[in-house]
Specification:
Elements lengths: L11 H7 L19 H6 L12 H9 L3 E9 L5 E11 L5 E5 H4 L8 E5 L5 E10 L4 E6 L11 E2 L10 E6 L7 E13 L10 E5 L11 E3 L4 E9 L7 E5 H5 L5 E2 L11
Parallel strand pairs: 7-12
Antiparallel strand pairs: 1-2, 1-4, 2-3, 3-6, 4-5, 5-6, 5-14, 8-9, 8-11, 9-10, 10-13, 11-12, 12-13
Amino acid sequence: MNRLLRPLLIPLATFSAATTLSLSPSAPLPQCSSVPTPTSLISSVKRSTLAPVPDETTAAIAATLPAVVNLTIQVQSYTRKYRDYSAGSGFIITPTGLVVTNAHVVAVAGTPNPRIYATLSDGRKIPATVHSLDKLSDIALVQLAVDPYANYPTCTLGTSSSLQSGTPVIALGSPLHLQNTCTAGIVSSPARHSSEIGLNTPAEFIQTDASVNQGNSGGPLINLRSEVIGVCTMTAQNVDGISFAIPIDAAWEVRPCEQVGDRAMSEREA
């Protein structure tokens, strides 16, 4: 069994050996005629035949999930065989397949002959390449293989400038390769300065209690209007309920990044 999962069922043999049921001799056994039959018991249970009532959370997830991708990066070993090196998440922002993710998810793509695959929510696996990246802001763009017959689903970008503590948010992505995972929470702090979490950059982060784990990096943090308001990037180690996302306004303002193809340096790294 996967070491990450803990069984919640008690084995029947263990339960039987550890538990003894006894009846008092003076307690009369119920007559079979007084016990409802399984058929009559089940038929007396009332069940709704109506579809589940949609709410803001499910509507926001349904609108955004088709544009969320799972990114897998493969590199060549010394035997020249490809192996999975890292994985993360991302979200599509243009119909031609431009994907936003974290730079640390695809930074290894600077090594010789990497392979990047984006798995869409419907299971399609699309080859991809790194378009550009900026290590300082930890933002990268990945280009999906252009298909003239494909019109990729896209996310709607919102704004993070008006966020308030307590705003409901949803994190989407592929933690631990579990694709199409959605976790909900609130904004714990809309502008947590990097110095407060031990980073030596002038950036601010959205702090949330929505569960974010390995593999969520690069995935969208959305509001209940299905607008992307942040890019999930990291979580506090050994602590539950403290995760961080790059505000979408900060990600949008990133200047033209390092072009991986011609190795042109951005102003941030010059």
